[in-house]
Amino acid sequence: xxxxxxxxxxxYRGPQGEGRDAFASFVPVGLFFLLHSLRLAGFRARxxxxxxxxxxxxxxxxxxIPADAVLxxxxxxxxxxxxxxxxxxxxxxxxxxxxxxxxLAVLAEAVLRRVPTVDFVLQGEGEESAVALLDAxxxxxxxxxxxxxxxxxxxxxxxxxxxxxLADIDRYFFLPSEVLPHCRHVRPENLAVLITSRGxxxxxxxxxxxxLWPGRIRRHRPELLVRYLRDLHQTTGAIYCSIRDENFLAxxxxxxxxxxxxxxxxxxxxxxxxxxxxxxxxxLAVELAAAGCDQ
Length: 295
Prior knowledge:
Layout (H helix, E strand, L loop, with lengths): L6 E6 L16 H13 L2 E6 L5 H9 L5 E5 L5 H14 L5 E4 L6 H7 L5 E3 L3 H13 L11 E5 L2 E4 L15 H4 L3 E2 L8 E2 L2 E2 L10 H4 L5 E2 L2 H15 L3 E4 L8 H14 L4 E4 L8 H9 L5
Parallel strand pairs: 1-2, 1-3, 2-8, 3-4, 4-5, 9-12, 12-13
Antiparallel strand pairs: 5-6, 6-7, 10-11
Helix pairs in contact: 1-5, 8-9, 9-10
């Protein structure tokens, strides 16, 4: 059957109770990339942010979501919510494969041993591997065992393949206007949180970055970032954004190109970023401020 026959539900639910906050209730950026790649491939994918659904109404909301496959993004601290979504997905869509991804996927073997309602765990970047998995499981095209970064149960325990980083992350770059129509319960300001690179030049012992983004750091072209911000402003009216890279200041040439394009575009944006102070000097600070960076 054609890919357009299949309804793919992408789910996220942030921490609840005392652990709940506005930022943790935002959909992770990676899930927007996954939504865009699945729709480019032809699947009928929709993204649902269930962070603000009261627990007493969650089952009813899950039952109403059409799904031939369910993909769940899971973070540390919100893992119980992800497991709850998996359990409800199996209750209301017993024939739909349930796939877990996101940072928690680094614990693939433990998840598959302890959470029976999760069928597969997908490590690494999912833009291509999710398409390959859905083709194999739903359309019987290709082999599940060949999917990059996929972990699954077998008679010999948990089997998996290492994730292969994407060669070109710009290939799946999206604009807010392209994904928002296919999102439910996603606030426009969610799209004002950007991650413009994957990886970090440092190897800090206390940080999980290398487990999530092994290998060299990869960045989106500055021209795409400015195009994104222009579309964000036109689509949502946003005038502030937050760049949440591991270390946005690490590549001076890339950073200066972005600042120059921001000044030339004349967009009404202020923005903040995070990065190591070791890369900052007075000249760069002045350039950042002129491009709208206020923090």
